[in-house]
Amino acid sequence: MTILHPTSADELADIITHAATEGRKLALQAGNSKGAIGAPEREAAIVDMTSFAGVIDYDPPELVLTVGPGTPLAEVQALVAAERQMLAFDPFDHGPIFGKAPGNATIGGVVVAGVAGSRRVSAGGVRDHLLGFAGVSGRGERFVAGAKVVKNVTGYDLPKLVCGSWGRLVAITEVTLKVLPRPREAVTRLFHGLSAERALAVMAAAMRSQASVAAAAHIPGHVRGGEAVTALRLEGVGPSIAARLAILDALPDGICRGDAAADDMVWDDLRTLAPLDDGRPLWRISVPSGQCATLVATLRALGARYLIDWAGSLVWLGFEGPADAVRRAAASAGGHAMLVRADPATRAGTPALHPQAPPLAALEERVRRAFDPAGVFETGRF
């Protein structure tokens, strides 16, 4: 396996240009925390992006950070935490899913995968807070998109396009992200023993209220080895949190009455997905929250195990059955399912990303060819 180690954007552009000319494929890699996602057999040279690391510019008063994409996520989080700040979105680290230490993911990998953690319902996703980037297209052309300011309306909004592209459009050489002050305190309101249907009703009522819930999740008893737990997270300062807990208590019929506790291990379970670490294939299903109850009932009847996050809009699923059953259930609920973890044979025969309707697939193909006409980044992974 060929591994290339560019140390500058010009070197990277030369590598991509030569690959396009010679009809070769390139796979971009840095932390490799998500390397086991997608088809295992890929005919491509690896481009190691770890040299594109480090802080390029950080202005805490302006709430803007520019770093190299190969910078480990843990370093980025430690940097902004030292200034009592945090990334404006809640990054999700795939490393623990594959038995790796947390924090080995790189910020560039998080951006191009477009993934977010439990606070996605309140903070938004990375695509909402990626202000700009620099990179090299599949044509070997260097370019800059967006800007290093929070308010910018210049040019096409390519930062949103690159999020979720999984390295199939551009090799990123730097990213500019919005940061925010860290909340001083956090409290989790816990409910024990709720069914999935009741938990979804509790979360929906809380999210509709003025309590400004930061995260809402449900872990059923069958994956905890005991009683189900539903969690609502509130962030801010003490008096504000107390007032918002009172708002939850005042909802009709005491729907959100429960125990107030310090931050609970529920959020650790959602960060690592440890309750689903049982060897079964792991799926990530995005679904309208109003359809979540039907989805989990359908898949639970087939023997699936699950966690519910994003107040019902995200389901993590452990399921040994046919992939078609998962994707049919997701599509029937108006959602889509991604295969995240499985054995090599399953990954080879099951596309990681949910198949798109023909018009969307044709549009995506045109976008990819505009950035990468020779298919340099089309490694067969997806």
Distance between the termini: 19 Å
Largest sheet: 6 strands, antiparallel
What is the alpha-carbon Rg in Å? 21 Å
Order of helices and strands: EHEEEEHEHHEEHEEHEHEHEHEHEEHEHH
Description:
With 382 residues, the protein is of the alpha+beta class. It has three domains: 3-181, Uridine Diphospho-n-acetylenolpyruvylglucosamine Reductase, domain 3 (2-Layer Sandwich), CATH 3.30.465.10; 185-271, Alpha-Beta Plaits, CATH 3.30.70; 273-349, Alpha-Beta Plaits, CATH 3.30.70. 30% of the residues lie in helices and 24% in strands. The protein has 13 helices and 17 strands. The strands form four sheets. Strands 4, 5, 6, 7, 8 and 9 form a six-stranded antiparallel β-sheet that branches. The protein has a four-stranded antiparallel β-sheet with strand order 11-12-10-13, sandwiched between helices. Strands 15-16-14-17 form a four-stranded antiparallel β-sheet, covered by helices on one side. The two termini are 19 Å apart. The model has no long low-confidence stretch (mean pLDDT 92).
Q: What can be said about this structure in brief?
A:
The chain has 382 residues and is an alpha+beta fold.
Labels describing this entry:
alpha+beta; Uridine Diphospho-n-acetylenolpyruvylglucosamine Reductase, domain 3; Alpha-Beta Plaits; four-stranded antiparallel β-sheet; 13 helices
